[in-house]
# Entry
Amino acid sequence: MAKKKSDNYTRFQAKFEVGPDSECWLWTGKTINSGYGLFWVEDAKQMTAHRYAFLEAYGYLPPVVRHSCDVKLCVNPAHLLPGDSKDNSRDMADRHRMGGGNVKLTATQVADIRQRFVSGNHGRGGNRRELAVEFGVNAKHIWRIATGRTGDYRLTDPKRDHHHGH
# Structure
């Protein structure tokens, strides 16, 4: 039987730029509130984009697909790891993402966002989507950071201000 996955995969590939394995491939399609990419698979079922990327690359789906790079919009299979909820909890604790503070930005990045943010109509429009893709966070977070309505994101420890991964 011919594989039908090509249609899905062709649509999927149109929503990110492939780069070297060392770099994040950022999803530019729809996202969900938690900041992950969202992809519709042809049987009208939704999957997060990184889980679909893992399935395409490795042919199976583990209970949890983790990011070695810690960038939610990344769909580079070289940055995706199989895991379970225990691994995921440990990753979150290791990366200071507990308690809803799940967006990691440095103080420099926050200053950059605040300086470059262009407001739209009541938080819509403007350039927050572009900034969100660039910084790997949800557009809502960009708006909150830029307008000072934060308290729900954490700054990374400057000592940890480097990318993990391989």
